[in-house]
Amino acid sequence: MSAVLPTPSDAEPTALYGGRKKGRVTVRDIAEAKRRGEKWPMLTAYDCMTASIFDRAGIPVLLVGDSAGMVVFGHESTLPVTVDELIPLTSAVVRATEHAMIVADLTFGSYQTGVAEALTSAARFLKESGAHAIKLEGGRRVEAQARALVEAGIPVMGHLGLTPQSVNTFGGYRVQGRGEAGEELMADAKALEAAGAFSVVLECVPAELAQRITDALSIPTIGIGAGGGCDAQVLVWQDMAGLTERPAKFVKKYADLATVLTDATRAFADDVVSGAFPAPEHSYR
Predict the structure, then answer these.
(1) Residue 6, pLDDT score
(2) What is the C-alpha to C-alpha distance for residues 119 and 41, in angstroms, rounded to an integer?
(3) DSSP for 249-285?
(4) How buried is 4 (Cβ within 10 angstroms: 0-12 exposed, 13-18 middle, 19+ buried)?
(5) Counting beta carbons within 10 angstroms of the beta carbon of residue 40, is it exposed (0 to 12), middle (13 to 18) or buried (19 or more)?
(6) For 107-134, what is the mean pLDDT?
(7) Which residues are tagged catalytic?
(8) pLDDT tens digits for 45-86?
(9) Which CDD domains match (predicted)?
(10) Annotated binding residues for Mg(2+), as ranges?
(11) Mean of the per-residue pLDDT values for the chain?
(12) Which member of 203, 211, 251, 260 has the lowest number of beta carbons within 10 Å of its beta carbon?
């Protein structure tokens, strides 16, 4: 009698972080984590070397964010970043990983004008970089785009609250959703869920509001400056690792790589100047 393989519904659930799932994390895995009440981590990534480290560490979702505008390209905001600039970064992250789901940001100006533009931009990320999902900013104003992408087979992660592409409208990087504005954010979150988004980032919103939205949605919320009630948490990796000079209030620094790299750089320079490097063991015969 042949062995009967378990169907997905019969299989033991695998934790997103710390589990032993084979292959890539999928939207189904993320949905199941929400049903189990499991919290999970997410980080940004923009190159093959750090992406590989994060993947081996078990981070289940990596975001190739338009935050690259600041931490990679040196701009003051995310606005100048283009699809053409982000696709090579996304490709590098995809090639360097085996486990994590790779989500790519739709950049400013690549989806706002309508469904056709959004489909073209998102399709480029999936076809040219191998990304597994895209993220876009906004709620009801991009509901049509989100719905069209999902119907076309493109997983969509939403982004609400402080949406950096709208920084000029907000008048700076400010907390969003206080007072009556909280109900607008709730409506936006429900609209994204109805459109088929598989998750929603909540950035810089009051913790109580983020908790209410998390409880109201069947899809996971991913917090960044939104308190501990969200289903997941994301940070820009340079903030997390201590490379950012003045990180936001919500950032917890888990290392001080700025000091480590500064010390290593000075040690290298001192060795070159003194003649200590290269030593005989660093030379060929």
Answers:
(1) 43
(2) 28
(3) TT------HHHHHHHHHHHHHHHHHHT-SS-GGGS--
(4) exposed
(5) buried
(6) 97
(7) 203
(8) 999 999 999 999 999 999 999 999 999 999 999 999 999 999
(9) KPHMT-like (cd06557)
(10) 66, 105, 137
(11) 93
(12) 260
Query: Which pLDDT band, with edges at 50, 70 and 90, does 175 fall under?
Result: confident
Return binding residues: 66-67, 105, 135, 137
Task: List residues forming the annotated binding site for 3-methyl-2-oxobutanoate.
Answer: 66-67, 105, 135
CB burial string 185-222: b at 16+ within 10 A, e below: bbebbbbbbebbbbbbbbbbbbeebbbbbbeebebbbb
pLDDT of amino acid 11: 53
DSSP the chain: -PPPPPPTTTSPP--TTT----S---HHHHHHHHHHT--EEEEE--SHHHHHHHHHTT-SEEEE-TTHHHHTS--SSSTT--HHHHHHHHHHHHHH-SSSEEEEEPPTTSSTT-HHHHHHHHHHIIIII--SEEE--BSGGGHHHHHHHHHTT--EEEEEES-GGGHHHHTSS-----TTHHHHHHHHHHHHHHHT-SEEEEES--HHHHHHHHHH-SSPEEEESS-TTSSEEEE-HHHHTT--SS--TT------HHHHHHHHHHHHHHHHHHT-SS-GGGS--
pLDDT at 9 > cutoff 50: no
Question: 184-219 pLDDT, tens per residue?
Answer: 999 999 999 999 999 999 999 999 999 999 999 999
Instruction: Using alpha carbons, select from 212, 206, 240 the residue that is nearest to residue 226.
Output: 206
Mean pLDDT, rounded, for 260-278: 98
